[in-house]
Amino acid sequence: MNLPNQFMALIKQLSPGTQGFMDSPHSLPAPCKKPIGLAQALSIVQSRCPEGRIDWLNFPDGDTGVYRISLINVPELSRFWSERQVSVDQYNGAILKVQDPGTRSTPLSNDNGHCTAAWPSVGPGGF
Protein backbone atom coordinates (compact mmCIF):
# COMPACT_ATOMS: atom_id res chain seq x y z
CA MET A 1 0.00 0.00 0.00
CA ASN A 2 1.16 3.49 -0.72
CA LEU A 3 -0.03 5.12 2.48
CA PRO A 4 1.99 6.90 5.17
CA ASN A 5 3.03 4.66 8.08
CA GLN A 6 0.73 6.39 10.58
CA PHE A 7 -2.30 5.07 8.64
CA MET A 8 -1.11 1.47 8.28
CA ALA A 9 -2.08 0.36 11.84
CA LEU A 10 -5.60 1.69 11.31
CA ILE A 11 -5.92 0.10 7.87
CA LYS A 12 -4.72 -3.24 9.22
CA GLN A 13 -7.32 -3.18 12.01
CA LEU A 14 -10.19 -2.29 9.66
CA SER A 15 -9.39 -4.47 6.67
CA PRO A 16 -9.42 -8.28 6.70
CA GLY A 17 -7.39 -8.27 3.47
CA THR A 18 -4.19 -6.79 4.91
CA GLN A 19 -2.92 -9.74 6.91
CA GLY A 20 0.83 -10.34 6.79
CA PHE A 21 3.14 -13.28 7.52
CA MET A 22 3.33 -12.57 11.27
CA ASP A 23 -0.48 -12.71 11.44
CA SER A 24 -0.57 -16.12 9.79
CA PRO A 25 -1.10 -19.20 11.95
CA HIS A 26 1.52 -21.94 11.96
CA SER A 27 1.30 -25.68 12.58
CA LEU A 28 3.40 -27.17 15.35
CA PRO A 29 5.40 -30.07 13.92
CA ALA A 30 4.78 -33.34 15.69
CA PRO A 31 7.70 -35.77 15.37
CA CYS A 32 5.57 -38.93 15.44
CA LYS A 33 2.60 -37.57 13.49
CA LYS A 34 2.04 -37.42 9.74
CA PRO A 35 0.14 -34.57 8.06
CA ILE A 36 -3.61 -35.13 7.74
CA GLY A 37 -3.82 -34.70 3.97
CA LEU A 38 -5.93 -32.50 1.71
CA ALA A 39 -9.08 -34.64 1.74
CA GLN A 40 -9.30 -34.56 5.53
CA ALA A 41 -8.56 -30.81 5.67
CA LEU A 42 -11.38 -30.15 3.18
CA SER A 43 -13.75 -32.40 5.13
CA ILE A 44 -12.98 -30.51 8.36
CA VAL A 45 -13.60 -27.13 6.74
CA GLN A 46 -16.83 -28.24 5.06
CA SER A 47 -18.18 -29.70 8.31
CA ARG A 48 -17.39 -26.54 10.31
CA CYS A 49 -18.26 -24.04 7.55
CA PRO A 50 -20.89 -25.72 5.34
CA GLU A 51 -21.96 -22.54 3.54
CA GLY A 52 -20.20 -21.31 0.41
CA ARG A 53 -18.24 -22.87 -2.43
CA ILE A 54 -14.54 -23.77 -2.39
CA ASP A 55 -12.67 -21.22 -4.49
CA TRP A 56 -8.99 -22.00 -3.88
CA LEU A 57 -6.64 -23.69 -1.45
CA ASN A 58 -3.00 -23.55 -0.42
CA PHE A 59 -1.03 -26.55 0.68
CA PRO A 60 1.17 -26.26 3.78
CA ASP A 61 4.51 -24.62 3.07
CA GLY A 62 7.05 -26.65 5.02
CA ASP A 63 6.79 -28.24 8.47
CA THR A 64 4.99 -25.29 10.06
CA GLY A 65 2.66 -24.47 7.17
CA VAL A 66 -1.11 -24.77 7.25
CA TYR A 67 -3.83 -25.64 4.76
CA ARG A 68 -5.60 -22.42 3.71
CA ILE A 69 -8.98 -22.94 2.10
CA SER A 70 -11.08 -20.15 0.64
CA LEU A 71 -14.87 -20.36 0.46
CA ILE A 72 -16.79 -17.87 -1.68
CA ASN A 73 -20.48 -16.98 -1.97
CA VAL A 74 -20.96 -17.44 1.78
CA PRO A 75 -24.59 -16.33 2.29
CA GLU A 76 -24.32 -14.69 5.72
CA LEU A 77 -21.40 -12.46 4.67
CA SER A 78 -21.44 -9.15 2.85
CA ARG A 79 -22.65 -9.25 -0.73
CA PHE A 80 -19.61 -7.15 -1.60
CA TRP A 81 -17.06 -9.48 -0.01
CA SER A 82 -18.46 -12.95 0.53
CA GLU A 83 -15.16 -14.81 0.98
CA ARG A 84 -14.13 -16.77 4.07
CA GLN A 85 -10.59 -18.13 4.47
CA VAL A 86 -9.98 -20.99 6.88
CA SER A 87 -6.54 -22.11 8.10
CA VAL A 88 -6.22 -25.75 9.22
CA ASP A 89 -3.32 -27.28 11.16
CA GLN A 90 -1.65 -29.86 8.94
CA TYR A 91 -1.01 -32.33 11.79
CA ASN A 92 -4.11 -32.37 14.01
CA GLY A 93 -6.76 -30.77 11.77
CA ALA A 94 -7.53 -27.95 14.20
CA ILE A 95 -9.01 -24.81 12.67
CA LEU A 96 -6.44 -22.19 13.60
CA LYS A 97 -7.97 -19.11 11.99
CA VAL A 98 -11.16 -18.02 10.24
CA GLN A 99 -10.84 -14.82 8.26
CA ASP A 100 -13.76 -13.00 6.65
CA PRO A 101 -15.27 -9.51 6.61
CA GLY A 102 -17.41 -10.24 9.68
CA THR A 103 -14.84 -11.86 11.94
CA ARG A 104 -11.69 -10.09 10.73
CA SER A 105 -9.71 -13.26 11.51
CA THR A 106 -11.20 -14.10 14.90
CA PRO A 107 -12.10 -17.79 14.99
CA LEU A 108 -15.80 -17.83 15.83
CA SER A 109 -18.28 -20.63 16.05
CA ASN A 110 -21.82 -21.00 17.24
CA ASP A 111 -23.25 -23.74 19.45
CA ASN A 112 -23.39 -26.30 16.65
CA GLY A 113 -19.71 -25.82 15.75
CA HIS A 114 -20.34 -24.01 12.46
CA CYS A 115 -18.48 -20.87 11.48
CA THR A 116 -20.50 -17.73 12.02
CA ALA A 117 -20.06 -14.07 11.28
CA ALA A 118 -22.10 -10.93 11.70
CA TRP A 119 -21.60 -7.32 10.73
CA PRO A 120 -22.04 -4.83 13.55
CA SER A 121 -25.46 -3.21 13.76
CA VAL A 122 -25.69 0.19 12.10
CA GLY A 123 -28.10 2.72 13.51
CA PRO A 124 -30.22 5.23 11.58
CA GLY A 125 -27.16 7.45 11.04
CA GLY A 126 -25.34 4.70 9.14
CA PHE A 127 -21.63 4.95 8.44
Your description of this structure?
- With 127 residues, the protein is an alpha+beta fold.
- The protein has a domain at 24-99: Nuclear Transport Factor 2, Chain: A (Roll), CATH 3.10.450.40.
- It contains two helices and four strands.
- It has helices spanning 5-14, 38-48, and strands at 53-58, 66-72, 84-89, 95-99.
- The protein has a four-stranded antiparallel beta sheet with strand order 1-2-3-4, covered by helices on one side.
- The model is unreliable at 106-112 and 117-127 (pLDDT under 50).
Which fold name fills CATH's third level, the topology of the domain at 24-99?
Nuclear Transport Factor 2, Chain: A
Query: Low-confidence parts lasting 5 or more residues at pLDDT below 50?
Result: 106-112, 117-127
CATH class of the domain at 24-99: Alpha Beta
| β-sheet strand percentage | 15-25%
Largest sheet: 4 strands, antiparallel
- Strands of the widest sheet, in order across it, are 1-2-3-4
Q: What is the level-2 CATH architecture name of the domain at 24-99? A: Roll
- Count the DSSP helices: 2
What is the gist of this entry?
With 127 residues, this protein is of the alpha+beta class. The protein is built from 2 helices and 4 strands. It has helices at 5-14, 38-48, and strands at residues 53-58, 66-72, 84-89, 95-99.
Considering the chains and any ligands shown, give keywords for the structure:
127 residues, alpha+beta, Nuclear Transport Factor 2, Chain: A, disordered C terminus
Topology:
Blueprint: H1 5-14, H2 38-48, E1 53-58, E2 66-72, E3 84-89, E4 95-99
Antiparallel strand pairs: 1-2, 2-3, 3-4
